[in-house]
Model the fold of this input.
Amino acid sequence: MSVCCPHAVSAGKFFSRFARFYRWRFNKMGFEPPQKALIQGLTTLGFQDATLLEIGCGVGHLHQTLLERGAKSAIGIDLAASMLREAKIWAEQRGLKEKTRYLEGDFINLAPELSKADITLLDKVVCCYPDAKLLVGSSMAKTKHLYALVYPRNRWYTRLAVGFAAVMMRLFRSNFRPYVHDPIQIEAWIAEYGFKKQFAAQGLIWLTQIYQSSSRAVV
Done:
């Protein structure tokens, strides 16, 4: 396991408590609207035979579904050991064990040992990281063709909710904090790597966006 800081350790402990619940919720309810939008966009742009890198993969339902629908292989990274245990169990049950690899730890620390993937996925991950510029830059550097992410809209009610969550984390003496990062700034960082927005959807809380490298498209 590779973890960089107290925030990452606390985040891993926090999300470990919800691993079984996440898997149960997906089995009962399926994908949430932002994830449905993400899959819709990826289907339009193409992910057949693509290699996937999912940062903050949780129990694995997103990348494993893409594998079932034609993606080639996937690496899932998460801070929570219990999330990865559930992901490995599920991968084996779905016949995807040979197509998946799971790493526990902070992506920033693990990045140097990773090869580039065709598609990078960050589903509700940017909001869990204090240094969004570092996360975006490090993950963009590992992306060949498509960069797909879901993160919060910068609205007063999302800031209020995140502020309340931060207070609760402090009361429970956790170093983990959620964040609302500026979407305009995030888009600017991504654009610096030569990627252009090709798909966008938004709900009350979440932005779903997919960016494509200007040099080559996934087919």
